Amino acid sequence: MAVLTIRQQLYRTLKQRILDGVYPPGAHLNIDIIAKEQGVSNSPLREAMTLLVKDRLVENRPNAGMYVIEITPQLYRELVDTINIWIEGAYRLCLKYGKTECLLALMEERLRALKKVIRRGTDRERIFAILDFQRCFVTATENTVFISSFGSEFDRLCLAYYYNHLGREIDWDINVQRAATIIDAVKSGLVDTVSDMIWTWSVPHFEANQIPEE
């Protein structure tokens, strides 16, 4: 097993803290403070943050420093639209190349995982499990370029979904029902129904006041 460099370790740590909400959207990532907390010099930390900028989870503001991205209504809508296009396109690829059986196997596996998380998980874990179920459309294509492109936005989508659900009264069980229904539609070859469900599953709007202040 390859040993991670300090930069890679810091990258993983910071990324997970962003996704876990330790550093919420809009939070200032003070390099001096974080370097002291992590017991490292500023240089590898800056390199790690540069990787997060490439992931578009962090932005470098001129004369201000590094900040976790803001989740705006526009960004949320753009992410949801883009991901839904990818998922629907992935479904069409599965149909074109005979990957339906692979897709169904993945969906059944993710549905079992989703049921467990909905019962016992945190809201953040539930959000990830729901999106992970949807991601199986892309995984089933076995198209490495497509999978990589989808993965490049997956973390930002998880972040946006989570902060859009804060403070909401949510019937989490309905997501299990939706997953089971979409599996039945795939089995029955109801292509238009599957496409419609992909587009109607996402929360259609963003509540900007859901993001807590630092």
UniProtKB/TrEMBL annotation:
The keyword DNA-binding applies. Residues 4-71 form the HTH gntR-type domain. InterPro entries: GntR_C, TF_FadR/GntR_C, Tscrpt_reg_HTH_GntR, WH-like_DNA-bd_sf, WH_DNA-bd_sf. Keywords: DNA-binding, Plasmid, Transcription, Transcription regulation. GO terms for molecular function: DNA binding; DNA-binding transcription factor activity. This is HTH gntR-type domain-containing protein.
